[in-house]
Design a protein that fits this description.
Two copies of one chain form a homodimer. Chain A contains two helices and five strands. With 114 residues, chain A is an alpha+beta fold. Chain A has a single domain, classed as HIT-like (HIT family, subunit A, 2-Layer Sandwich). Chains A and B meet through helix 2, strand 4 and strand 5 of A and helix 2, strand 4 and strand 5 of B.
Chain lengths: 114, 114
């Protein structure tokens, strides 16, 4: 998508601090971190939201979560714990219309989750 | 797992308000709801946490998210928006050691997510 911020990060047209990459996904640090570790994992193909995941793209979830597990190890939060969050649509405050999984750790996270 | 609360819900030994079920996953209302809609989606096989997802079980993520999309439609929060949350380990406050995806909607969710 030409106007998509995250597609432009995938294409390296906009800079980001990349922490993980493979052929399916890219992960980079959130520009407005809400915890000592705050990384976004996105699928490289453009998918706007959870609701727009079609059956043929559902396999991307496995790739996204494999990356999240790897990132938790890299960032050394797999022992202390972490929260994974996906916002979908207006009530959740989804800020960029390209699917992304937030990985938050390095501090105690409270309940409710927003 | 004999002593797992959620395995016992899967086996119908402990009651829950089930909203969705297929051969792979079960979904039921959270006993301590944090939003007008608050449903938990769990895989039927016992997996204790994100960190314990093995390569051969990773396909469960697709099943969990397919269910979440279906539940968002059933609960009529797919238009207004919803937040999906997975807690892993102590810092996230994971309360039951059986993997579960929280589906929260029906109100504006704030940021940060806990």
């Amino acid at each position: 998508m030409v106007d998509c911020l995250f597609c432009q990060i995938v294409q390296r047209k906009i800079p980001a601090t990349v922490v993980f990459e493979n052929e399916h996904v890219l992960a980079f640090r959130d520009m407005h971190p809400q915890a000592p570790v705050h990384v976004l994992v996105i699928p490289k193909p453009h998918v706007s939201s959870v609701s727009e995941m079609t059956p043929e793209k559902m396999g991307l979830w496995e790739k996204i979560y494999q990356a999240a597990q790897q990132i938790a190890k890299q960032e050394q939060i797999d022992g202390s714990g972490f929260r994974l969050v996906v916002n979908n649509g207006p009530n959740a405050g989804q800020a960029v219309a390209h699917l992304h999984l937030h990985v938050l750790g390095g501090r105690r996270l409270t309940w409710p989750p927003g």
